[in-house]
Amino acid sequence: MNAQSNKPLKSSFTKESLEVEQLSYSKQYRFYYIAAAIMISSILIYQFLEEKPDAQDLYVSYYQAFPVNIDINELNASSDSLIFHGFNAYKDGKYTKASSLFEASLKHRYDEDIAFYLAMSYINSNNETQDLSMFKKLKQKQSKYMPQLYWYTALLYLKANDSKAAIKQLDSLRLTKSNFKKQASRKILKTLKS
After folding, report:
1. How many domains does the chain have?
2. What is the chain's mean pLDDT, rounded?
3. Residue 92 is part of a domain; what is its CATH number?
4. What is the phi/psi pair of residue 54, to 5°?
């Protein structure tokens, strides 16, 4: 009877040990499932936080006022007073004053340099209504400032959060023979197209 009474006891131990083993396996798998979920969540959060910068961030990163590349000393302060004072105002960062002086000068006679610096004065003084239209006029005239026009027009589009239009301008800049902002434009294009 002892042998028979041990059989149910033995089988109950075996059943219990199987249940304990299954519980330990399910706990172990649960640990792996939780670890995998944490890893996947971490990767997704990292990718979300590491998004590419938006267009306006690119504008802020790359925008710099165009320097005066004209020898102001060659201008005669008396005969070209408006131009002389306009370039001095631009050089001093007084872009609103420079734009009004350049506008007055252009009323007397057209000059490509003055028109370009007028457009740059508009940009630097945040005159969004005038800057793009002035750039378009200069592009129609096939200005010697075409690379600069493409660059600054692209930046204006970035500022307006219009990445597609900025890409077109940067692609046009890339096709010019000029080295003006070539490396920076490649970086922006890579960022915008990725």
Report:
1. 2
2. 82
3. 1.25.40.10
4. -80, 170
